[in-house]
Amino acid sequence: MRSKSISALFFIILLAGTFPHATSAKRDQFVFRSTYTFENRGETAYNITQADSTLSLFMDNRWQTVTTRNASHGILKETLDEDGNGLAVVDLPSEISAGETMIFSIEYVILSEDMPRPEIDPAEAGGINDIPVRLAGEYTEETESFRRNDDIESLARELAAEETTVLGVVTRLIGWIVANVTYCNFDTPLYPDETLDDLQGDCDDQAILLISLLRSLGIPAFLQVGVVFSESIDSAKSSWEGHLSFKQDGVGWHGWAMVYVPPWGWIPIDLTLAAATEPLEMVLRAPEYESSIVPAYNVSRQAYIGDSRRSREQLIASDLYITISETFIEESTGSSWPTFVYIGVGLAAGAAFVVIIIYLSRRNSSLEEILSN
Fold this sequence. Notes:
Blueprint: E1 28-40, E2 46-47, H1 50-53, E3 54-56, E4 64-69, E5 75-80, E6 86-90, E7 95-96, E8 101-112, H2 133-139, H3 150-160, H4 166-180, E9 182-183, H5 192-198, E10 200-201, H6 203-216, E11 221-239, E12 244-261, E13 265-269, H7 279-284, E14 293-299, H8 304-317, E15 320-332, H9 346-350, H10 352-360, H11 367-372
Parallel strand pairs: 9-10, 12-15
Antiparallel strand pairs: 1-8, 1-15, 2-7, 3-6, 4-8, 5-6, 11-12, 11-14, 12-13
C-alpha cells in the first residue's frame, strides 16, 4: 500500500545487530525503473514544492545493496527522517506551466541475498523480561500510527493472559487477526482502532493492528515496507478521485510487521501469506527472508497514517495529477521467481499504495527544513 524511491545510502537501524547473522552467499540482482509523471491540468503554473521533489532511499544493510543509475535529474541533498530512513531532494524545475507535464525517472540496481532463517523452537522462547530495556523503551511507545484505546488494550490482555513467552503472545495475536480480519484494500492506511472496529484491512493495516496490540503489551514492534519482485504482478489503477494513478509490472510493494521475539531477535511477521494456515507456521514461513523481497522503509515514530490522509486531501484539492510507474527490467538470479502466494491482491493492488502514500507523505515537510539538516 504506499510509495518510495531514489538512491542508496540508507540508515542501518541500531537494532541491526540483533538480527540473525548472515552467512556469505551469492547475491541475486534485480533492476527496476520508477517513473513519476506530474501533469498540471490547471490554468496557472504549479510551483514545485519539496513534497514533489523529495523521495526516499532504499536501505543498505548486510543482506542488500541498492544503487541507482540513469536518473533523469540530479540529487540536491540527502538526509534522514525521524525513523532513520534516507531521503533525497531531487533537482526538479521550480514550476510546471499550465497544461504542461514533467517527468522524473530513475533505475534501481538491487543486489540481494536470502537472510538466514532463525531456528525457532517454542521450547526455547523467552519472556517479556528477556527483551532488552533499550528496545522496550524505543519500540513500545504509542505513536500517531500505532495508537491504542481501551478496546485494543483489553483485547491484547485477553489474548495474552495465558501466555508466558513472547512467541506465545505473538502467535495468539496472529491467530486472532487471521481468523477475524478480512483482507480489503483502502486508498489510505487505517488506524488500528479502525481496523479493529471494521475487521477489514490490507497488508499494512493488519500489520499496524498487530504492532499496536504488541506495543500495548510491552513487546517491541514496528512496520517495514519493501519491494517484491514477482512475474505475477501486473496492474494499472487510479485513486484519489483520479489525481493519482499507478502502474506495476513485475514489481510491487508490501508491508509487514517486524517484532522482537527473544532469543531470536527481530523477525518479520507477514499476515497476508495465504500458503500458511497456522500462526506458528506464518512465523516460520515468512517470505521476507528471501532475496526477492527487499526492505525499503521503516515506520516507528512518524505520522504514517495522518500524513498520508493529509496528502490525499491536498492532492485532490489541487490541479496536479500524478502517475507512478514501477517496471521490472532486469534480473540475474540463481533461482526461479518466488512462489509464495498472498491473500487477495495484496501485491498487485493494495501494496501499490504503499509506494504512493509513503512518497506523498513527504508533502508535509518544508524544503527549507530538509536542506538545513
